[in-house]
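Field log, afternoon session.

UNIT: design team B
ACTIVITY: writing a sequence onto a fixed backbone
BACKBONE:
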C-alpha cells in the first residue's frame, strides 16, 4: 500500500507535513486541500496545447458514445424495417420502429427528484471508483444484456477515454474480470477464447478511440495498397484452384478433357501437377505479403494503446502465476489470442467495418486479406496442426517467425503499472466537486435494475455500501419512451469519506489475496529502490534491499522494509515466489517497472495531430450512420403514403380501414424502369467486379423497376437486343439481411454489386417517388 508521504509519490507532498498527524486515517478533504495549495495555474504554450488536447479527447469520447448508440439503432432497424415493407408488421410494431427514429425531445420527460438524483450520484460514484462491483456485474449478466451494460460502462461511467483516472479504473475492472476468468477456467486451452460477456468486453474496449486510431495509422495504408490489385488471385485451396482452372479451360476451349472431371476430392485436386504449379508462386507471394503485415505490426509496438498493452501484461502475469508449468510459447499464444484474434484480425478481414478503406474490397483482395489474417492467427496460436489442411503449406511462415512473434508479444507486456498514480487520483476524486458523467435516464434505470437483479451476489452483507445505497433507492423505475430519454449531467459524490488506507482494498478486493499481496510487494520494492541511495542497476537482490531498508535511520523506510520482508515470507509460504532463485519472477517485474518509470515521456502536439485524424474518422462514420437513418426515414414515409388510401387509416402496412372494415388498397403503381449504364454504376462503386469484357461494357445497361413497395427488378440489357440478358427479383428485406450479416456482395452472374450501395441507390431513386 503506498501513501502520499512516500518519496516519488505523484502527489509531491512532503513527508514532514503528513507525519505530523497522529493518525493514519487521514482526512481525504484535508489531503486534497494541501495539494491544492501548491496547484498554480500555468498559462503558456504547453498549457494551451495540453488544454487543446484535453478538449479534443473529450470530443472523441462523446462522439464515440454517439456512434455506439447509432450503430445499435442501425442494427435494430436493419432487422425490423424489412418486416414493415413486407406487410408483416402490425401497427404497434410500426410505431416501435418509428420511435427508434425519434429524436429525444428535451421538453418531454422528467428528471428524478433531487433526493433520487443525490442517491444516484452516490451510487454511480461508488460504481465508478470501486470497479469490482462493475466487474462482478459484467460477469453475471447474460449475453443479451451485455451490450446495453457495456454502453454504460465503456462510454458513460468510464467514458472519458483519454483521462487517466477513468482509464485506470476501467483497467482495474479488467484486472478483476480477468483474474476471475483464470480462477474459474477448467482448462488452459479454453481461456479467453469463447464468446462470453468477458470476451465481448475485451472486443468493445479495443473499439474505443485509441484502438481505432492505432488500427488506422498502422493498417490502413498496407490494406489499401493491397486492395488496389483487384485481379491478383492468391487462392491456395487446391479444390478452389482446381475449379477455377477447369472453368478457365472450358471457357477457352469450349469443352473439358476427360482427365479433368468436376467435383474431385481435395486430395485429388492437391496432387494435380498443374494445380501445384499454380499454387507454388502464390505461396511465396502470400508469405511475402504476410511478412510485410507482420513487420508493420511489430514496428508499431510503441504506438499500441497503453490499455491494450496493459491487458496483455495482465494475461501474461496471471498465466505465469496460475499455470507455473506453462511454456513461454503457451503464454504468448494466450496474449496473441487477445491481441490478434480480438483486435488486429477483425480489422484485416473486414477493413470497411473499421473505417480503414472506402467500400468493400473486391473478391480476390478480400480472400487474400482473409488468408493473411489466418496466417497471423496461426502464428500467434502456434498450433501443431492447421484447421484447414491446405494451410499447412504456409507453415514456413509460422516456423520462420515463431521467435520474432514471441519477442513482440512479450515486449507488448512491458508497460508500467499505474496503481500508485491511481491511488492519488482517488484521494483527489473524493473531495473534488467536478466529477461528472453524462448519462441517459434509461442507462441510469437499466444499471439500477441489473444491480438489483444480482444484489445478493454483488453485496450479500446488508452493511455494505452498495446494499445500503440500493436499499435506499428502492425498485428501479421502468425504461422511459425513447423520446423522453433525456441525457442528464450527473455529479458524482461520495456518501462516505474513505480512509486513505482503505482505498487500495476498495479498488482491488475482488482480486485474490495472493495476487494483491504480490502486487503490493512489487510496488513497495519499486518505491524502496527509488528512495534508497546507491542501489545501482538491476538485477536487484530483493532480500538484501528489504534488509537494508529495515535497518536505515528513516522510519518510513524501516516500516516498509519490515513490511516487505514479511510479505516475501508469506508469498514464499504460498509458493508464489522462491528464495532459491532470488525471487526471479518478482525481480524481473520490479526491474521492468523501474525502466518504464524512467522512460515516461509525453509528446502533446504529436498526440494531438494523431487524435485529430481519429476525430475526423469518427465524425465521418457518424455522418454515414446518420445518412443510413435518414434513408430509413424516407422509406417509412414512402411506405406510409403507399399504405394510406381513400383517407383511411392504416392498421398495418398495405391494409386500410374504411368505415371500420378492412379493405385492400388499390393496386400499387409500378415505378420505373430507371436506366443506368455499366460505366455509371462502376464509377459510383455499385459494381464491385465485372466479368463483362472491356470492349462490350459501353453496350451494357441496367433497368431497375419497382412493381410494388419493397420489391425491385434489376434487368441487365445489351444494346440492340429487345430481351434482357438477365433479370433478378430483389426483396428489400433480403438485401437488408445481407447487409446485417456483413455479406456485402450481390452476384448477378455477369457482375457483382455492393449491397450497401445498391440499397443507397434504390432508396435515392424510389423513396421520394
Amino acid at each position: 500500500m503506498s501513501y502520499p508521504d512516500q518519496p516519488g509519490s505523484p502527489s509531491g507532498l512532503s513527508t514532514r507535513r503528513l507525519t505530523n498527524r497522529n493518525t493514519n486515517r487521514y482526512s481525504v478533504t484535508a489531503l486534497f486541500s494541501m495539494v491544492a495549495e501548491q496547484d498554480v495555474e500555468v498559462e503558456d504554450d504547453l498549457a494551451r496545447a495540453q488544454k487543446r488536447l484535453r478538449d479534443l479527447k473529450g470530443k472523441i469520447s462523446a462522439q464515440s458514445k454517439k456512434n455506439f448508440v447509432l450503430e445499435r439503432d442501425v442494427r435494430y432497424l436493419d432487422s425490423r424495417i424489412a418486416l414493415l415493407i413486407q406487410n408483416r408488421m402490425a401497427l404497434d410494431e410500426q410505431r416501435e420502429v418509428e420511435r427508434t427514429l425519434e429524436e429525444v425531445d428535451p421538453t418531454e420527460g422528467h428528471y428524478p427528484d433531487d433526493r433520487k438524483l443525490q442517491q444516484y450520484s452516490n451510487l454511480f460514484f461508488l460504481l465508478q471508483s470501486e470497479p469490482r462491483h462493475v466487474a462482478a456485474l459484467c460477469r453475471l449478466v447474460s449475453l443479451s444484456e451485455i451490450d446495453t451494460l457495456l454502453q454504460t460502462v465503456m462510454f458513460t461511467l468510464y467514458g472519458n477515454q483519454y483521462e487517466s483516472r477513468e482509464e485506470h479504473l476501467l483497467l482495474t475492472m479488467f484486472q478483476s474480470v480477468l483474474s476471475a476468468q483464470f480462477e474459474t477456467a477448467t482448462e488452459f486451452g479454453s481461456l479467453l477464447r469463447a464468446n462470453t460477456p468477458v470476451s465481448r468486453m475485451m472486443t468493445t474496449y479495443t473499439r474505443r478511440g485509441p484502438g481505432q486510431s492505432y488500427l488506422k495509422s498502422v493498417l490502413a495504408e498496407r490494406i489499401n495498397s493491397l486492395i488496389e490489385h483487384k485481379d491478383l488471385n492468391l487462392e491456395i485451396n487446391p479444390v478452389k484452384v482446381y475449379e477455377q482452372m477447369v472453368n478457365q479451360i472450358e471457357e477457352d476451349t469450349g469443352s473439358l478433357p476427360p482427365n479433368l472431371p468436376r467435383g474431385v476430392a481435395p486430395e485429388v485436386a492437391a496432387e494435380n501437377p498443374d494445380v501445384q504449379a499454380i499454387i507454388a508462386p502464390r505461396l511465396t507471394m502470400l508469405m511475402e505479403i504476410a511478412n510485410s503485415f507482420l513487420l508493420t505490426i511489430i514496428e508499431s509496438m510503441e504506438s499500441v494503446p497503453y490499455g491494450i498493452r496493459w491487458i496483455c501484461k495482465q494475461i501474461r502475469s496471471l498465466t505465469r502465476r496460475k499455470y507455473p508449468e506453462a511454456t513461454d510459447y503457451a503464454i504468448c499464444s494466450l496474449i496473441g489470442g487477445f491481441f490478434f484474434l480480438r483486435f488486429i484480425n477483425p480489422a484485416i478481414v473486414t477493413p470497411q467495418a473499421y473505417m480503414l478503406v472506402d467500400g468493400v474490397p473486391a473478391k480476390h483482395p478480400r480472400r487474400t486479406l482473409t488468408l493473411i489474417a489466418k496466417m497471423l492467427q496461426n502464428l500467434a496460436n502456434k498450433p501443431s496442426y492447421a484447421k484447414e489442411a491446405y494451410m499447412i503449406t504456409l507453415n514456413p511462415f509460422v516456423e520462420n517467425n515463431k521467435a520474432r512473434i514471441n519477442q513482440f508479444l512479450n515486449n507488448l507486456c512491458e508497460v508500467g503499472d499505474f496503481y500508485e498514480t491511481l491511488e492519488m487520483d482517488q484521494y483527489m476524486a473524493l473531495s473534488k466537486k467536478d466529477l461528472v458523467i453524462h448519462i441517459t435516464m434509461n442507462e441510469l434505470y437499466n444499471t439500477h435494475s441489473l444491480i438489483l437483479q444480482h444484489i445478493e451476489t454483488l453485496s450479500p452483507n446488508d452493511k455494505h455500501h452498495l446494499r445500503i445505497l440500493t436499499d435506499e433507492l428502492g425498485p428501479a423505475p421502468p425504461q422511459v419512451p425513447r423520446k423522453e430519454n433525456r441525457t442528464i449531467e450527473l455529479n458524482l459524490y461520495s456518501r462516505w469519506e474513505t480512509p486513505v488506507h482503505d482505498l487500495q482494498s476498495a479498488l482491488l478486493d475482488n482480486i485474490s489475496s495472493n495476487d494483491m499481496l504480490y502486487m503490493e510487494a512489487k510496488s513497495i520494492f519499486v518505491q524502496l529502490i527509488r528512495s534508497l541511495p546507491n542501489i545501482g542497476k538491476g538485477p536487484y537482490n530483493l532480500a538484501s534491499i528489504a534488509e537494508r531498508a529495515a535497518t536505515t535511520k528513516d522510519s518510513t523506510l524501516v516500516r516498509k522494509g519490515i513490511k516487505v520482508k514479511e510479505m516475501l515470507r508469506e508469498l514464499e509460504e504460498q509458493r508464489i515466489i522462491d528464495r532459491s532463485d532470488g525471487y526471479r519472477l518478482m525481480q524481473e517485474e520490479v526491474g521492468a517497472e523501474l525502466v518504464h518509470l524512467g522512460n515516461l515521456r509525453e509528446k502533446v502536439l504529436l498526440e494531438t495531430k494523431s487524435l485529430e485524424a481519429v476525430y475526423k474518422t469518427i465524425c465521418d462514420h457518424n455522418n454515414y450512420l446518420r445518412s443510413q437513418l435518414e434513408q430509413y426515414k424516407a422509406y417509412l414515409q414512402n411506405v406510409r403514403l403507399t399504405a394510406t388510401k381513400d383517407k383511411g387509416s392504416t392498421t398495418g402496412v398495405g391494409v386500410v380501414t374504411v368505415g371500420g372494415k378492412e379493405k385492400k388498397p388499390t393496386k400499387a403503381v409500378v415505378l420505373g424502369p430507371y436506366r443506368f449504364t455499366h460505366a455509371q454504376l462502376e464509377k459510383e462503386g455499385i459494381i464491385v467486379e465485372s466479368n463483362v469484357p472491356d470492349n462490350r461494357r459501353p453496350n451494357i445497361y441496367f433497368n431497375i423497376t419497382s412493381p410494388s413497395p419493397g420489391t425491385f427488378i434489376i434487368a441487365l440489357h445489351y444494346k440492340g437486343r429487345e430481351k434482357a440478358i438477365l433479370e433478378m427479383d430483389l426483396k428489400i428485406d433480403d438485401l437488408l439481411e445481407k447487409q446485417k450479416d456483413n455479406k456485402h456482395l450481390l452476384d448477378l452472374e455477369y457482375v457483382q454489386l455492393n449491397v450497401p450501395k445498391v440499397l443507397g441507390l434504390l432508396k435515392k431513386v424510389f423513396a421520394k417517388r
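LOG NOTE: The two ends are 70 Å apart (CA to CA).
NEXT ACTIVITY: expression trials, pending approval
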